[in-house]
Amino acid sequence: MRTDTGRTDTGRTDTGRTDTGSSRLPARPAGPPGRALLVRLALLVRLALLAGLAMLAGMGVLAGCDDSGGSAGGAPLPARPGTSGGDVTATGEAGVPGADDSPAAARTTVEAYFREINDATRGGRLAAISATALAGCQTCALDVGVSRSLQQRGLHADGPAYGLADVSAQPRVGLVATVTFTLRTTTVGLLDAAGRHVGDAPGVPTRAATAELALTQRGWRVQTLRYAPAPA
């Protein structure tokens, strides 16, 4: 049996040993990037900037041209009142192309509205006012509600309830026209489907009425109706 009495634990010197027990030397911290790497990064940044500028220039050229060879800028902006380039009246106010904006047309629209209400109540059907009034007209909605009530009850009027007189239309201001008139609401009898008289719808005193109409692409449409006691 071999005995190494001359060897001690301290006889071996591990100069490469670290405090953690590893025999590897500690890694050196990474130094600054080399000059070649910096030059390459600068070149890439410059190329990216040049590519972006070229793309923006190309977009500007495309935006300034059209297929018809016209001027730049795409679709023209709508003409302002008092400027050229649109349907402009003698008063310098822009109109709606294709729409009859005359006072006579506004008057005809109001008369057609009340004619439809009379026809609907006499026929026992729902009044259709989309050709003469806007959906937001609250007074118009009440008239339509009366015709709906008669239809649901199977009744109809024996005559026209509304009568207009002294209808006068003013020249439009912007896209709005005003029509004034006197409205007479007479008492009408209510008949069932068999023609039997079941009641009456009472009339009201004659009133002074004002209708405001909006000019649309399809012509004048009633947007408000206001009533006041007629002057004595």
Key structural traits:
transmembrane; 3 helices; Nuclear Transport Factor 2, Chain: A; membrane; 232 residues; transmembrane helix; disordered N terminus; four-stranded antiparallel sheet
Mean pLDDT: 75
Radius of gyration: 44 Å
Helix content: 25-40%
Named CATH architecture of the domain at 103-224 = Roll
Strand content: 15-25%
How do the helices and strands line up, and which of them pair or pack?
Layout lengths: L34 H29 L39 H21 L14 H16 L2 E2 L4 E8 L6 E10 L2 E4 L5 E5 L2 E13 L2 E11 L3
Antiparallel strand pairs: 1-4, 2-3, 3-6, 4-5, 6-7
Structure description:
This protein is α+β, with helices and mostly antiparallel strands and 232 residues long. It has a domain of 122 residues: Nuclear Transport Factor 2, Chain: A (Roll). Helix content is 28%, strand content 23%. It has three helices and seven strands; from the N terminus they run αααβββββββ. The strands form two sheets. A four-stranded antiparallel β-sheet has the order 2-3-6-7. Keywords: Membrane, Transmembrane, Transmembrane helix.
Can I get a quick summary?
The chain has 232 residues and is α+β, with helices and mostly antiparallel strands. Helices cover 28% and strands 23% of the residues. Mean pLDDT is 75; it is low at 1-27 and 53-93.
